[in-house]
């Protein structure tokens, strides 16, 4: 079977600065990839390319066999690829329920009652169904991030991307968000997670990839990756974060 996500020879520049250098990454359906690397190494840019939030100048990305740089509309990409950001990015003027139903109603054409039913199920799954009528500012950071996960799941994505989903949270809220992500992983979701949570990487990842200066330098199962990183740069990085 073809991999659900194929990143082939992707290079990207911001002006004269090359931030992705011939990146290759194939992900089979159901696999969990954890991406690590120093700040500025291109982790966010890479996953933003997968969601078409950023354009790239060379290479190609296929989601479910379809090329992103082709004719596909932005909405189609958003439907297939869910994204969870460090800063939650909920719509502040919409209730929690509306945050979750907006995409399915507008982009998938779901009738409102059906979208609401499904949103409540997803909010229950992430443990906050009783908050459905509130607004984002009334929730804790951990709760907001769980809403953001429910919102992404409401589109029935093929792949879920997480960009440092726990980095903006108070320490006591990190666990509740990682628990939801573990649950999602157990459910078979294909996930690409940029994180500094090495415990999560060891436990959940099928593969850990290391990026530095726009290059994807290592790609190995966590046991191998953490026990015997191939490169000095990886070892140096791990010593700093572990
Ligand atoms: P990471 O997520 O690993 O910290 P990023 O993908 O955010 O790295 O950034 C990679 C590089 O691209 C950095 O040098 C950063 O300064 C640069 N960069 C990111 N976004 C932009 C932008 N919109 N315009 C110009 N440079 C950018
Ligand atoms: Mg980043």
TrEMBL record:
<keyword id="KW-0813">Transport</keyword>
<keyword id="KW-0067">ATP-binding</keyword>
<dbReference type="InterPro" id="IPR030679">
    <property type="entry name" value="ABC_ATPase_HisP-typ"/>
</dbReference>
<dbReference type="InterPro" id="IPR003593">
    <property type="entry name" value="AAA+_ATPase"/>
</dbReference>
<dbReference type="InterPro" id="IPR027417">
    <property type="entry name" value="P-loop_NTPase"/>
</dbReference>
<protein>
    <submittedName>
        <fullName>Peptide ABC transporter ATP-binding protein</fullName>
    </submittedName>
</protein>
<dbReference type="GO" id="GO:0005886">
    <property type="term" value="C:plasma membrane"/>
</dbReference>
<dbReference type="InterPro" id="IPR003439">
    <property type="entry name" value="ABC_transporter-like_ATP-bd"/>
</dbReference>
<dbReference type="GO" id="GO:0016887">
    <property type="term" value="F:ATP hydrolysis activity"/>
</dbReference>
<dbReference type="GO" id="GO:0005524">
    <property type="term" value="F:ATP binding"/>
</dbReference>
<dbReference type="InterPro" id="IPR017871">
    <property type="entry name" value="ABC_transporter-like_CS"/>
</dbReference>
<keyword id="KW-1003">Cell membrane</keyword>
<comment type="similarity">
    <text>Belongs to the ABC transporter superfamily.</text>
</comment>
<keyword id="KW-0472">Membrane</keyword>
<keyword id="KW-0029">Amino-acid transport</keyword>
<keyword id="KW-0547">Nucleotide-binding</keyword>
<dbReference type="Pfam" id="PF00005">
    <property type="entry name" value="ABC_tran"/>
</dbReference>
<dbReference type="GO" id="GO:0015424">
    <property type="term" value="F:ABC-type amino acid transporter activity"/>
</dbReference>
<feature type="domain" description="ABC transporter">
    <location>
        <begin position="5"/>
        <end position="238"/>
    </location>
</feature>
<dbReference type="InterPro" id="IPR050086">
    <property type="entry name" value="MetN_ABC_transporter-like"/>
</dbReference>
């Amino acid at each position: 079977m073809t991999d659900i996500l194929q990143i082939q020879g992707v290079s990207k520049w911001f002006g004269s600065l090359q931030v992705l250098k011939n990146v290759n990454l194939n992900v089979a359906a159901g696999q969990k990839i954890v991406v690590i690397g120093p700040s500025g190494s291109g982790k966010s840019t890479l996953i933003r390319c997968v969601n078409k939030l950023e354009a790239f100048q060379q290479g190609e990305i296929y989601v479910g066999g379809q090329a992103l740089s082709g004719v596909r509309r932005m909405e189609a990409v958003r439907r297939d690829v869910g994204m969870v950001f460090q800063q939650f990015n909920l719509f502040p003027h919409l209730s929690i329920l509306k945050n979750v139903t907006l995409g399915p109603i507008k982009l998938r054409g779901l009738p409102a009652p059906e979208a609401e039913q499904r949103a409540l199920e997803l909010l229950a799954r992430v443990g906050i169904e009783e908050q459905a009528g509130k607004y984002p500012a009334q929730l804790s950071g951990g709760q907001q991030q769980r809403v953001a996960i429910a919102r992404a799941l409401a589109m029935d994505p093929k792949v879920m991307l997480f960009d440092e989903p726990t980095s903006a949270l108070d320490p006591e809220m990190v666990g509740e968000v990682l628990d939801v992500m573990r649950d999602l992983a157990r459910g078979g979701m294909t996930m690409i997670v940029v994180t500094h949570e090495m415990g999560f990487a060891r436990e959940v990842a099928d593969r850990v990839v290391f990026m530095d200066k726009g290059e994807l330098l290592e790609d190995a199962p966590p046991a191998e990756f953490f026990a015997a990183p191939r490169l000095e740069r990886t070892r140096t990085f791990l010593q700093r974060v572990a």
